[in-house]
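Quick one: C-alpha coordinates for this chain, please?
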Amino acid sequence: MDIQINDVLTMKKKHPCGSNQFTVLRSGMDFRLHCNGCGHEFLAPRSKIEKSVKSVTRPTISK
Protein backbone atom coordinates (compact mmCIF):
# COMPACT_ATOMS: atom_id res chain seq x y z
CA MET A 1 0.00 0.00 0.00
CA ASP A 2 1.39 3.41 -0.99
CA ILE A 3 0.95 5.75 1.98
CA GLN A 4 2.97 8.95 2.03
CA ILE A 5 3.54 11.83 4.45
CA ASN A 6 0.59 14.29 4.71
CA ASP A 7 -1.93 11.70 3.44
CA VAL A 8 -5.20 11.64 5.35
CA LEU A 9 -6.21 8.09 6.33
CA THR A 10 -9.82 7.19 7.01
CA MET A 11 -9.81 4.21 9.33
CA LYS A 12 -12.40 1.46 9.90
CA LYS A 13 -12.48 2.08 13.66
CA LYS A 14 -12.82 5.42 15.39
CA HIS A 15 -10.38 7.02 17.81
CA PRO A 16 -11.79 7.39 21.36
CA CYS A 17 -12.46 11.09 20.58
CA GLY A 18 -14.90 10.03 17.81
CA SER A 19 -12.82 10.93 14.74
CA ASN A 20 -11.75 8.29 12.22
CA GLN A 21 -9.41 10.51 10.16
CA PHE A 22 -5.66 10.67 10.77
CA THR A 23 -2.83 12.56 9.06
CA VAL A 24 0.45 10.72 8.40
CA LEU A 25 3.43 12.55 9.91
CA ARG A 26 6.03 9.81 9.38
CA SER A 27 6.12 6.55 7.44
CA GLY A 28 8.52 3.62 7.51
CA MET A 29 8.37 0.42 9.54
CA ASP A 30 5.81 2.24 11.65
CA PHE A 31 3.63 5.31 11.18
CA ARG A 32 3.38 8.45 13.30
CA LEU A 33 -0.25 9.53 13.02
CA HIS A 34 -1.99 12.73 14.08
CA CYS A 35 -5.68 12.48 14.99
CA ASN A 36 -7.63 15.15 13.09
CA GLY A 37 -10.23 15.26 15.87
CA CYS A 38 -8.30 15.80 19.10
CA GLY A 39 -4.71 16.33 17.91
CA HIS A 40 -3.26 13.26 19.66
CA GLU A 41 -0.09 11.88 18.05
CA PHE A 42 0.94 8.24 18.28
CA LEU A 43 3.11 5.56 16.68
CA ALA A 44 1.61 2.38 15.24
CA PRO A 45 3.17 -0.53 13.31
CA ARG A 46 2.74 -0.49 9.53
CA SER A 47 1.04 -3.91 9.44
CA LYS A 48 -1.70 -2.82 11.85
CA ILE A 49 -2.38 0.46 10.03
CA GLU A 50 -2.49 -1.12 6.57
CA LYS A 51 -5.11 -3.62 7.79
CA SER A 52 -7.38 -0.96 9.27
CA VAL A 53 -7.29 1.71 6.51
CA LYS A 54 -10.60 2.27 4.73
CA SER A 55 -9.39 4.99 2.31
CA VAL A 56 -6.41 7.27 1.61
CA THR A 57 -6.85 10.92 0.60
CA ARG A 58 -3.93 12.84 -0.88
CA PRO A 59 -3.70 16.60 -0.47
CA THR A 60 -4.08 18.43 -3.78
CA ILE A 61 -1.24 20.62 -4.96
CA SER A 62 -2.48 23.91 -6.37
CA LYS A 63 -0.32 26.38 -8.24
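The chain is about 10% helix and 40% strand.
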